Amino acid sequence: MEYRGFLNLSVLGDLIVVPIVITHKELNVDAEVVIKIEYKDNTYLGIGKSLEWTDAFANLQKALPDGVNIQCCMTCKYGTLCPYGNIPDYILCSKNVVINDKDDVIDWLDKADIEDIKRSSLSLCEQYAASNESDYTYNDYLYYLNH
What we know:
Structural class: alpha+beta
Number of helices: 4
Strand order of the largest sheet: 4-3-2-1-5
Distance between the termini: 27 Å
Largest sheet: 5 strands, antiparallel
Number of strands: 8
């Protein structure tokens, strides 16, 4: 399966958009996922096995030059994965709630209108804030980035 779209990169503070191709060998847990982008005449790959793409995005970020950062819902501190299952290109925006742990995520989802908070992992909005160690996010991206 192949997804094509566009990815936002922050390059020394300036936002640029590059084409992206995300390929799944198979749609199941632990099947290889490859993310490919072209930037400044170079091809960059992120390779992982997470169906939600978290490890592949982290692998791609590690491959990019210093000062070039991925900016999308997957890398945002509000980008929340679904605790009920693994779905490619599916992330939930928690920018209007306080999330401190997985129980908060479940309580929030029990009350939320999913259609209002559902996003593509590649989306970007004006409230983007990079994932960090200080804020809880139900998303493995930062874990994979740091390991």
